[in-house]
Amino acid sequence: MSSQAKTLLTPEEYLELDRRAERKSEYFRGEMFAMAGASLRHVLIATNIAAGLWQRLRGTPCRVFSSDLRLRVSPSGLHTYPDVMVVCGDPEFADERRDTVLNPVVIIEVLSESTRDYDRGRKFQHYRTLPSLRDYLTVAQDEPHVEQWIRQQERWLLEEFSDPGQSIRLDSADCILPLAEIYDKVEWNSAP
């Protein structure tokens, strides 16, 4: 029985393939991983977040990016597409193509059944290595619940929000995001 060696891609080879592909893929340690499509509820929540942040950050040095902009976590080599990112000041890019950002201050992931553990665990471990990152939010789509991890020097503080009357303070972007807006028009009587 012979086993074939796995062919690993360089980051440059991954970028070339991903830029031509019809579907997005993540990249880590030489391997590409196809990203699954999102549910209606997932897309609605991510859109609500991006729209709310865009409205609040107009006229500031902060910019909101959706899941179509790639992030490279330089310290670990992970390339991924967060649901929402905020960059304050000038965006730093991986190369002249300007489609891979390096310096978000806020990253937000809407949790799916298949990615929940990864987004809260290993992926957050990668994100924590970003020197620019100040706030990481994971947003449930099966109930109103947001976990906000806030960098305070070398530690991360967890705050949780489940009451629609609560608001999330993002000091890194100097704005507040109400939970009611995150879950606007989400129907809870249907499956996510």
Q: CATH H level: which superfamily? A: tt1808, chain A
Radius of gyration: 17 Å
Remind me, CATH topology? tt1808, chain A
Helix and strand pattern: HEEHEEEEEEHHEEEEEH
Overall mean pLDDT stands at 91
Class from helix and strand fractions = alpha+beta
Number of strands: 13
Q: How many domains?
A: 1
How would the global form be characterised? globular
CATH architectural name = Alpha-Beta Complex
Instruction: Tally the helices.
Output: 5
CATH hierarchy, class:
Alpha Beta
The span between the termini is 44 Å
The profile of the biggest β sheet is: 6 strands, mixed
Uncertain segments are: none
Strand arrangement in the largest pleated sheet: 3-6-8-9-10-11
What fraction of the residues are assigned to beta strands by DSSP? 25-35%
Brief write-up:
The protein has 192 residues and is an alpha+beta fold. The chain has helices spanning 11-20, 40-57, 116-120, 122-127, 179-182, and strands at 25-28, 31-34, 62-66, 70-73, 78-80, 84-88, 100-101, 106-110, 135-139, 146-152, 155-161, 167-170, 175-178.
Secondary structure layout plus pairing:
Elements: H1 11-20, E1 25-28, E2 31-34, H2 40-57, E3 62-66, E4 70-73, E5 78-80, E6 84-88, E7 100-101, E8 106-110, H3 116-120, H4 122-127, E9 135-139, E10 146-152, E11 155-161, E12 167-170, E13 175-178, H5 179-182
Parallel strand pairs: 4-7, 8-9
Antiparallel strand pairs: 1-2, 3-6, 4-5, 6-8, 9-10, 10-11, 12-13
Walk me through what this model shows:
It is built from five helices and 13 strands. With 192 residues, the chain is an alpha+beta fold. It has one domain (39-182): tt1808, chain A, CATH 3.90.1570. The strands form four sheets. It has a six-stranded mixed β-sheet with strand order 3-6-8-9-10-11, with helices on one face. A three-stranded mixed β-sheet has the order 5-4-7, with no helix packed on it. A two-stranded antiparallel ribbon has the order 1-2. A hairpin with a 4-residue loop joins strand 12 and strand 13 (175-178). The longest helix is centred in the first third of the chain and has 18 residues, at 40-57. The model has no long low-confidence stretch (mean pLDDT 91).
